[in-house]
Amino acid sequence: MVQWPSVTYRWCLTMSTEAGLFPDIDPVAEATAAQAKGAEPKCSGQPRLRYANRDQIEFRMCALDQLLSEEHEARTVWAYVENLDLTPLLQQIKAVDHGPGASAADPRILIALWLYATLRGIGSARELERRCDPQTGEVAFQWLAGGVSLNYHTLSTFRTAHVDYLDDLLTTSVATLRQEGLVRLERVAQDGIKVRASAGASSFRREATLQHYLQEAEKQVQALKTELNADPAAANRRQQKARERTARERLERVQRALEQLAQVEAQKKPKDKDKARTSTTDPDARVMKMGDGGFRPAVNVQLSTDSATQVITGVDVTNSGGDQGKMAPMVEQHEERYGQAPKQMLVDGGFVKKEDIEAVSPQTTVYAPVPPSKDPERDAHTPCPNDSPAVAEWRSRMATDEAKAIYQRRSQHECVNAIARNRGLQQFRVRGLQKVRAVVLWYVLAHNLMRAVTLRAQRDQEGKTR
After folding, report:
1. Is residue 363 classed exposed, middle or buried when 0-12, 13-18 and 19+ CB atoms within 10 A define those classes?
2. Binning pLDDT at 50, 70 and 90, where does residue 202 land?
3. Nearest 5°: phi and psi at 39?
4. Beta-strand runs (E) in 307-385
5. Are 388 and 358 within 8 A, CB to CB?
6. For the chain, how big is the Rg over CA atoms in Å?
7. 290 contacts 296 by C-beta, under 8 angstroms
8. Most confidently modeled of 138-152, 210-224, 275-289, 439-453?
9. Tens of pLDDT along 49-68?
10. Scanning 38, 90, 204, 336, which has the fewest C-beta atoms within 10 Å of its C-beta?
11. Hey, which residues does 304 pair with through a beta bridge?
12. What percent of the chain has pLDDT over 90?
């Protein structure tokens, strides 16, 4: 930098002032005087700032692993998935070494993505694909994908294609927690949660309309087959196959709706059988009374929870609008999964059924409110003459303060339902009880994964304080 002599600077300043270019002041003298008085020199004009520019394209030299913190939830999900036995899934992959076909995505990636997506409340395969995009996605999803390209069709198919494997994961995960002494299955609470089905109220039709739809669907499928066979070399052959597939799927749904119609008629009174209707969109859906008092197509999701730890231990999906008769099958499910029935079962009044109470005793003690007696002069807790020993014992037990205190702990199960709602269990995007069950199992596995992390952390903390 060139240093100008002070004499030359003052001469230029004097000449410029005389010429009228600057005001008749000496900035150097003014600054010197201000510093002598201890004051800051005055400045005019807008302040010069460095503004954020987030649109600037940059190339960063770093690994994807460095962009995710060590405590991130996605790493917890991946640590769980890494220890899973993937043999049942790997056996279904047709692309093998020295064989034809494109390489399949690692099942661990797909499992981890759906578990983390469930925790984030993401239930759409298209949205999950967008989050995994290497350019515009989120770091956590990009980290889980690890550079493996995925499309929404692969993600959607995988989500519902392995119900048995997901069900086995539930059994294995709870059994592992039992081995560690974190879950005991001494007291289990059960409740039902009604979730909106992927069907509209206008899709429900009676038998006459369903038969008409069936005939039309059969004609359409046959016409498309004839058109496809008549011109096999057409340029739009792929579009014709897609149209045929769509018509065939509609035909199958109508046939399924007619099959389900018989079940709906069996549940109605003889005078109302002609009013039975089923959905042509999702034949397994039923119109149910929801929590807000309205009636909408839905399915009934049954969850059982270890009340001490809030770990989900059992799951079932039905299209029955009520909870009565669902307790005994859940107890049997525990026996099949873990070889042990719960010692205590906490259910609300909607589950009370004498046959269920008799079926689960004496290995399981039922804590449920006793319905009010039809006779206002008789105490509902007093055993009736025709009550079995198990039912009479249940009535007398629920009159005690100890049983009432135990039953109040069933409210802890409501927290599990609320967590599922907050994670997006508001409406299913899939159709059919089998696929719905698969989606519910993803919610259950994601919930139990985070509960296991919390329980192990609490155990380790207690071990340090001892």
Report:
1. exposed
2. confident
3. -105, 155
4. 311-318, 344-346, 365-367
5. yes
6. 34
7. yes
8. 439-453
9. 767 776 777 676 778 888 88
10. 38
11. 190, 314
12. 47
Distance CA 220, CA 215 (A): 9
- Average pLDDT for 175-186: 92
DSSP string, 196-250: E-S--GGGEE-HHHHHHHHHHHHHHHHHHHHHHHH-TT-TTHHHHHHHHHHHHHH
Higher-pLDDT residue of 223 and 203 is 203
Q: Is 48 left (phi over 0), alpha (psi -120 to 50) or beta?
A: beta
Name the token pair of 254. Answer: 């109508």
Beta bridge partner(s), residue 316: 302
Q: What pLDDT, on the 0 to 100 scale, is given for residue 234? A: 54
What token pair was written down for 336?
Answer: 């099949």
Strands 344-346 and 187-196: parallel
Check residue 273 and report its DSSP letter: G
Q: Report d(CA 299, CA 166) in Å as an integer.
A: 20
Which pLDDT belongs to residue 130?
Answer: 95
Kindly report the average pLDDT of the chain as a whole number.
84
Does the pLDDT of residue 346 top 50, yes or no?
Answer: yes
Q: How far is CA 9 from the centre of its chain?
A: 75
Q: Is the model more confident about 377 or about 145?
A: 145
Indicate the SS3 state at residue 147. Answer: coil
Q: How far is CA 268 from CA 73, 256, 262, 272, 274, in A?
A: 49, 19, 10, 6, 9
149's tokens? 């390209």
Residue from 279, 317, 286 nearest 160 by CA: 317
pLDDT of residue 19: 46
